[in-house]
Amino acid sequence: MAEHPNKHRLRARWAPIVSAVAVVLALLVPAPSTSGVDHLDVALTTRQLELAPRTPADPVVAAQVQPSLVQITTLVDYQGVVGNGTGIVLSPDGEVLTNHHVIQGANAIKAVSIGTGQTFDADVIGYDRRSDVALLRLRGASGLPAAPLGDSATVGVGDAVVTFGNANGTGEPLTREQGAVTALDRTIDAYDELTGSSRELGGLIESSTNLRTGDSGGALVNSAGQVVGLNAAATVNFRLGTPGGEGYAIPINRALDIASQIRSGAPSPTVHIGPSALLGIGVNTAAERDAGLPVRQILLGGPADQAGLLPGDVITAIDGTPINSANTLTAVLDLHYPGDVIDLSWRDRSGEDRSAKVTLESGPVS
């Protein structure tokens, strides 16, 4: 199916292409909800770049940031998928900030420190799916270079910026793209190209940087060599290599606020702490329904399989909450942990309403 010309895409690299049926939501595609940059903004950007005394492409500036980044590789056992992304080191003992969609669905996460060359296994401390932020812990890490952090509240239209990411793939040099801030407080509709579900991301920094697949979770850096944003999305035409698109970053102040909440260990309706809970179903989320969410696949031996669900059944409720979309399903499951017992209701293929108590298991990052 042809892509809409105004679609934008959250950037994580996945190979091979994943089936449209997924146990968990994965790779997102966003589309802007506001108009593009006007000619006045573009002219301002060009002029300010000409006047900048030092741009982020300066090797000294780059040297301040690159050692504090990691290249992330994820493995999704269920679908046999390997993904690449980027992370920002927050502390010498291995706290790493990245996007939720970079590690979504992962059964195993590895990170290579650019500063030390070491490879670490990574655990998920927690995540905020709605804001697309995740916090990782690198096992056994110490003495890692921490990122020089700036204040995203000081970012202005026309500021020179550069992005660093993992579009070349783990083990290769980091990608580095220079541009300028073209808009602030942008809102995009994040669309899951695998399943058709969507959500809104707001308050983003827009820049004329060529973000590509694998750059997710990387750093948006100002001319002082400070990280001011967490790379999250880019226009599709950047992926196709044509000019005129935009990159989008989550302001670092907001990302750090979320990381602090995760670090505190306090869950909320938006923040999940620790391992994810697995129900073990694959759903088609191309469209919402008034009465339930169709089950497309069942993970053999998983909780849903043990409860007797079959492909073609329709989940209607969990713990009394009506389920009619993948967004609702994941929101409910984000409130649970492995070992929790849920009340699952569904309608089987013959039209009979059924229910069972189901014990959730530990699974990939949901």
3D architecture notes:
There is one protein chain. The protein has 366 residues and is mostly beta strands. The protein has helices at residues 39-51, 59-65, 100-103, 236-239, 252-264, 303-307, 326-333, and strands at residues 8-10, 13-15, 28-32, 69-76, 81-89, 95-98, 108-113, 119-128, 133-138, 160-165, 175-192, 198-207, 219-221, 227-235, 247-251, 271-273, 276-278, 281-283, 293-298, 314-318, 321-322, 341-347, 353-359, 361-363. The protein has 7 helices and 24 strands. A 6-stranded antiparallel β-barrel has the order 10-11-12-15-14-13. Strands 4-5-6-9-8-7 form a 6-stranded antiparallel β-barrel. Strand 11 (175-192) and strand 12 (198-207) form a beta hairpin. The longest helix is centred in the first third of the chain and has 13 residues, at 39-51.
Give the secondary structure arrangement, pairings included.
Elements: E1 8-10, E2 13-15, E3 28-32, H1 39-51, H2 59-65, E4 69-76, E5 81-89, E6 95-98, H3 100-103, E7 108-113, E8 119-128, E9 133-138, E10 160-165, E11 175-192, E12 198-207, E13 219-221, E14 227-235, H4 236-239, E15 247-251, H5 252-264, E16 271-273, E17 276-278, E18 281-283, E19 293-298, H6 303-307, E20 314-318, E21 321-322, H7 326-333, E22 341-347, E23 353-359, E24 361-363
Antiparallel strand pairs: 1-14, 2-5, 3-11, 4-5, 4-7, 5-6, 6-9, 7-8, 8-9, 8-16, 10-11, 10-13, 11-12, 12-15, 13-14, 14-15, 17-24, 18-19, 19-20, 20-21, 20-22, 22-23
